[in-house]
Design a protein that fits this description.
Blueprint: H1 5-14, E1 20-23, H2 30-36, E2 43-51, E3 57-63, H3 70-77, E4 84-85, H4 88-95, E5 115-120, H5 121-124, E6 129-131, E7 138-142, H6 144-154, E8 158-161
Parallel strand pairs: 2-6, 3-5, 5-8
Antiparallel strand pairs: 1-7, 2-3, 2-4, 6-7
Length: about 170
Amino acid sequence: MPLTPDDVLRYLDEHGIAVRTYSHPPVHTVAESQALRGDIPGAHTKNLFLRDGKKTYFLVTLEENTPVDLKSLRGRIGARGGLSFASADALMDLLGVLPGSVSLLALVNDTERQVQVAIDARLMAAPLVNCHPVTNEKTTSLSPAQVQAFLATTGHVAALLALDESTSPS
């Protein structure tokens, strides 16, 4: 059974990852998040839950304003065949979240490590990275070191993406 937001926050605490979490109205898109989240400091994310032609799943976490071309992204994350957005069913089965609540913290539910992770290097250079703790009604702030510590506790290793004009749509 997927962890609840309180379970995720407890998990972080039990692993010595002290975070700050903010409550806000539910947000489903980057635009809604920007309008409703208030003045939460740090870099804010958008998360793409993708699958390739071989049914390999990827969680790609980017700075919220980063444009991405899936064709250019494919080779950078090691996808085979075309990339497309994974289904809501796969999202629930693998990460235990609904659309609109996808984030790095949902990897706590991927206990069999079926999802490959890629993170925009610019996020890891920010003082804080903001993620939903498996609900789009909260935002949790982690330092890059805390993101790495969290990933280590889940057994995930993230590929860092140096995104530039070659990954943006023309």
